[in-house]
Amino acid sequence: NAVAASEVELDVLTGEFHPRRVDIAMDVGQSLNPTLDIGQIEGAFAQGMGWATMEEVVWGSPEYGNWLPPGRFFSNGPGNYKIPGFVDVPTDFRVSLMKGAQNPNTIHSSKAIGEPPFFLGASVFFAVKEA
User: Fold this and answer.
1) Distances from the Cα of 25 to the Cαs of 37, 64, 72, 106, in angstroms?
2) What pLDDT digit, counting tens, does each position of 31-78 carry?
3) Residues 50/84, Cβ–Cβ less than 8 Å
């Protein structure tokens, strides 16, 4: 379980945006290594933000000729689309781990960190949409 709130600055003439502040609270159970968990959350958030706001999905069509046949997926990896860089991360990035969220069914009461915060990056997309 997690929640994210994003504040963005949007240039209404160009459509360029920059996330100014992001607050994330995440339930990680009893964290085995809080510093590592926070880093994983920040990385997954940045990846999700790129997926939600920067990725261009390109499928083959007759207009591309023989190099990209119709129905062939082109943007299938980070070599084919823009991924967030260090200038794209929020200026003020706050991650907090929820306290007292025990998980008695796992080792040391820990929970998954890598994948769950990925979709929290969509909060940037919705902040841009509402700006």
Assistant:
1) 12, 44, 39, 21
2) 888 999 999 999 999 989 998 998 877 788 887 777 788 888 877 776
3) yes
Is residue 120 within 8 Å of residue 51, measured between CB atoms?
no
- The answer to whether the beta carbons of residues 75 and 57 sit under 8 Å apart is yes
Q: Which of 42, 55, 56, 115 is catalytic?
A: 115
Length of the chain measured in residues: 131
Q: Among this protein's residues, is 130 annotated catalytic?
A: no
Reported as half-sphere exposure (CB side, CA atoms, 13 A), residue 101 has a value of: 15
